[in-house]
Model the fold of this input.
Amino acid sequence: MSKGVLFIVSAPSGCGKGTILAEILKSGNIYYSISATTRSPRPGEVNGVNYHFISKEEFEELIENNGVLEYASYCDNYYGTPRKPVEDMLNEGKHVILEIEVQGALKVMQKCPDAVSVFILPPSMKELERRLRKRGTEDNDVIKKRLSQAEDEIKYAENYDYIMVNCELEKAVNDLAAIIRAEELKKENTINLIDEVLCNA
Ligand code: 5GP
Done:
């Protein structure tokens, strides 16, 4: 059995990647890695579903015990990818999506050179600000911080394998689905099929 493909998806906060990924995950054959974070839950977020919401002390213990594949500090909070579920899923042949910011993404690209990375751009900075304000979950200072963080993050987009724009949800979902499908069908991931076909001749 081939190993699953590890996908890294990054986009500035408010860019709509959560909505795109929710559509992609409906297919059911991709595992979404649930990150750990020290940030407080937003209204409607559920522990163990959106994130594992943990304390700073618990997070630092995870780091010490080599429990995270990568982690980063983002807007004064820790975010990290629990290592074991990701490794288990990939070994079981399932694809895994990490929805992580750029510093963590760069670390995963180094550690896992086969990972496929996708950066989602907003149509413009003005539109990003409009989306963040419309979400209404952060105060003005946090929005300003996230916008300046977004500008910094976008400069790293050139390090990713794919760059796409989220102008319109349906098109963005189709673009990401096309990337995932193309990667699934890459020779490295389908080479076993040749023997299978020949054996069943
Ligand atoms: P938010 O607070 O808006 O949920 O997430 C803030 C940023 O942290 C987003 O860019 C999100 O992709 C990123 N993030 C979420 N989980 C992780 C993680 O496990 N590792 C890293 N490096 N970034 C993460």
